[in-house]
């Protein structure tokens, strides 16, 4: 669908390029290389569209052990339409020390995906955690095209801050890049403290060669602006703050300065030069997210030129103004932000009541309207949560700030949502941000030489498995070896490949859900099977996280009241999490139909396991005689398919018991093999063919039968006595487990009076009342129903989404629940 800006803009640019290319005007001939550069720029955007990623999580903070629900938006190109480029999104949870807890591959369909993150493998470190998301394709375009957001996580240790030292990093950035002697310009500056946050500063600018002094002070989050600064020839400026000295960029004797001012309806671009004679010109062009909306020659008179550009030409977003010299090289750049009136949206959230009681049905009606009050179709994600526990941060990253701002400039932006708020200084501070943190997200050197462009990765439409085929005796790489592979225990969907000169083979575009087997057979070029197959580690091509995570700005006072409050919150979270995990487990083992927390009948089980169970439904169980897929897996890999179980030869066995302990550590699970307590080494030595059944116990009601030894979970194994298993290897054949799309899970929320009795005694302590990762809004709007819990409080509704024509939006509303 063509955006409303495209028609007029393309006509303007096409006419300009045609005129400039074919005209006999001497100016056109002088700027032929500049025109070619813009043509290359357009080609670059068309052939290599960028993906932009945003994750909406159900809350901004969590208790350690919570499940983090997210909805993913991946858009491509300048008009932010759903991406059809990538089918795999990688979502990672990063601990405060920078360690990746786990990577979750999420399936994307028409630019949308969803899932949840857990703390199963986290160490429970206190501090901020980070969520990171990217596609292999987005990695080609730099760190601003990786989504990251920091989340507060409440642990047993509470909240700790990083070291609060006095050192700051203070940088000065002249508008459009340079200080030119005698030319008046603006200088932005930014101070960052040791904690990674903006630091308030004030000081004085001095000149080494004169008695010049100019006082300055930051305005917002360590950022500030020195307006109309005119450097003197031969000056050497520096800044002094609290006795420390900070360098200011050197003053040049020649060059170009690009200043941009804006009114309500237009941009005034003022260009000064000390090297261009009267009558010469430069080429100015401007783009938003790679879409060129303006290009024109700027004529100079006595070293000065200007352009007045209507804002209505541009869509909402960062406008990149670039000035090209006759050789097609960028001479100056400046970033500004445009908020287009035609992109304005109104989001209506209407509730059927003013306030609600406990376990009450709530009906929310939603609609999206454009600037002319016409209803727009849209897709959104919806969260409803307790708003009294932690103050909702309206300046937190959101879909507006992410897709309009954060992908356009480098580095972390503190409080990105602030710049899209109704604060009276939001526009001014946003302009200062672009002065101090603005950068060339569109690498001009890359664009200038497309033939030399090297990409990190091609788009992924499935998963890749790679490896080598080598001779069985000496291990030499075998070229043109035949590789036959299939996926799954049934070995269907057989495909062929051959090795290259290095003996390497690549199996790509594999469609794998969850974890599955891949079976690989190989023969050398003559058909012999005396070969060795070596697989490369899956996802080894993806980069590890190497950034930093900021601490908290200050450490709260830890008094007795705050400790008690944290313990109450932890207990509430634990109670709610057990209900949630029970529901998720039922989905993953295929038992979910219309589950209610009143329970269901136990399945048939061995007498010993049946006697150990307690409660209203079975825990987790594998009968290898009844499950062909599980019986084809190595034993530890089969255990890893059971929800809440993590088994590896390196880290041993872990069982998630509903809610993860706040300290992050637990005693070892209890292992019982044929009625005898055993250890992990014995468990790991078992073959799948040796085992008849496995049962895992995770719930407190069940674990009570095992006493204190069962606090970390229990696993019971019943073997096939005397059967054993064949250990013979097949030449030229291997079987390996590969990871595919992380299985989707559904958020649990009781529907009182429908699936759950209103008078059920079990307490409902949910913190997140409702989560829906994909709601489709038609031109008639949409209704959503959910039920309140047993906790009187104020609850907040947050909706984030994107319209059919690529406009992101955010809206919130609060309501009360009374006793």
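-> sequence recovered:
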């Amino acid at each position: 669908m063509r955006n409303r800006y495209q028609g007029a803009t393309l006509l303007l640019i096409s006419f300009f390029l045609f005129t400039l290319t074919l005209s006999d005007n001497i100016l056109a001939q002088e700027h032929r290389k500049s025109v070619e550069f813009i043509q290359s720029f357009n080609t670059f955007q068309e052939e290599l569209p960028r993906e932009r990623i945003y994750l909406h999580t159900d809350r901004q903070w969590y208790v350690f052990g919570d499940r983090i629900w997210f909805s993913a938006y991946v858009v491509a190109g300048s008009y932010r339409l759903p991406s059809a480029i990538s089918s795999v999104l990688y979502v990672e949870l990063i601990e405060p020390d920078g360690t990746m807890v786990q990577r979750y591959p999420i399936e994307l369909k028409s630019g949308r995906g969803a899932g949840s993150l857990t703390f199963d493998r986290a160490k429970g470190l206190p501090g901020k955690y980070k969520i990171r998301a990217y596609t292999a394709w987005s990695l080609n375009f730099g760190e601003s095209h990786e989504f990251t957001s920091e989340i507060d996580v409440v642990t047993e240790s509470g909240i700790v801050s990083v070291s609060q030292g006095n050192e700051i990093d203070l940088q000065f950035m002249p508008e459009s890049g340079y200080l030119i002697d005698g030319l008046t310009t603006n200088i932005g500056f930014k101070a960052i403290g040791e904690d990674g946050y903006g630091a308030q500063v004030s000081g004085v600018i001095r000149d080494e060669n004169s008695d010049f002094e100019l006082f300055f002070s930051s305005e917002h989050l360590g950022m500030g602006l020195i307006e109309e600064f005119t450097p003197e020839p031969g000056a050497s400026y520096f800044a002094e703050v609290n006795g420390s000295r900070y360098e200011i960029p050197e003053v040049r004797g020649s060059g170009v300065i690009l200043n941009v001012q804006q009114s309500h309806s237009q941009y005034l671009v003022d260009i000064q030069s000390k090297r261009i004679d009267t009558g010469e010109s430069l080429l100015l062009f401007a783009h938003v997210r790679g879409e060129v909306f303006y290009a024109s020659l700027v004529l100079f008179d006595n070293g000065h030129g200007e352009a007045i550009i209507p804002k209505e030409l541009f869509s909402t977003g960062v406008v990149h103004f670039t000035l090209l010299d006759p050789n097609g090289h960028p001479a100056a750049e400046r970033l500004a932000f445009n908020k287009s009136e035609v992109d304005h949206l109104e989001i209506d959230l209407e509730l059927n009541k003013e306030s609600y009681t406990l376990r009450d049905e709530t009906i929310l009606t939603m609609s999206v309207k454009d600037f002319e009050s016409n209803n727009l179709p849209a897709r959104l994600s919806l969260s409803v949560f307790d708003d009294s526990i932690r103050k909702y941060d309206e300046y937190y990253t959101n879909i507006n700030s992410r897709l309009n701002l954060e992908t356009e400039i480098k580095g972390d932006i503190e409080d990105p949502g602030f710049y899209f708020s109704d604060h009276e200084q939001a526009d001014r501070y946003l302009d200062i941000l672009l002065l101090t943190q603005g950068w060339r997200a569109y690498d001009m050197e890359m664009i200038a030489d497309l033939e030399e462009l090297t990409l990190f990765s091609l788009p992924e439409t499935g998963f890749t498995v790679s490896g080598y085929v080598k001779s069985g005796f000496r291990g030499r790489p075998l070229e043109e070896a035949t590789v036959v592979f299939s996926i799954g225990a049934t070995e269907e969907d057989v495909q062929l490949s051959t090795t290259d000169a290095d003996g390497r083979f690549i199996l790509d575009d594999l469609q794998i859900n969850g974890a599955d087997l891949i079976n690989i057979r190989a023969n050398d070029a003559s058909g012999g099977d005396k070969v060795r197959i070596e697989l490369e580690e899956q996802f080894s091509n993806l980069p590890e996280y190497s950034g930093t995570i900021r601490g908290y700005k200050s450490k709260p006072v830890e008094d007795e009241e705050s400790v008690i409050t944290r313990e109450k919150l932890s207990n509430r979270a634990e109670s709610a999490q057990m209900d949630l995990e029970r529901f998720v487990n039922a989905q993953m083992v295929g038992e979910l139909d219309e589950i209610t927390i009143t329970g269901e009948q136990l399945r048939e089980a061995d007498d010993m396991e049946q006697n150990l169970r307690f409660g209203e439904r079975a825990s987790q169980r594998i009968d290898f005689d009844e499950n062909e897929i599980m019986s084809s897996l190595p034993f530890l890999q089969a255990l890893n398919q059971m929800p809440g179980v993590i088994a590896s030869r390196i880290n041993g066995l872990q069982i998630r018991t509903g809610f993860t302990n706040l300290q992050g550590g637990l005693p070892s699970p209890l292992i019982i093999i044929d009625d005898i307590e055993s250890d992990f080494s014995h468990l790991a030595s078992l073959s799948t063919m040796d085992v008849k059944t496995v049962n895992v116990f995770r719930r407190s009601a069940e674990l009570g039968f095992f006493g204190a030894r069962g606090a970390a979970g229990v696993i019971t194994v019943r073997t096939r006595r005397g059967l054993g298993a064949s250990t013979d290897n097949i030449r030229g054949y291997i079987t390996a487990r590969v990871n595919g799309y992380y299985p989707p899970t559904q958020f649990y929320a009781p529907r009182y009076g429908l699936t759950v009795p209103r008078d059920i005694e079990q307490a409902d302590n949910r913190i997140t009342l409702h989560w829906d990762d994909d709601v489709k809004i038609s031109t008639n709007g949409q209704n959503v129903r959910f039920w309140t819990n047993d906790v009187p409080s104020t609850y907040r509704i947050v909706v984030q989404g994107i319209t059919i024509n690529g406009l992101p939006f955010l809206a919130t509303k609060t309501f009360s629940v009374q006793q």
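The first strand starts at residue 51 and ends at 57.
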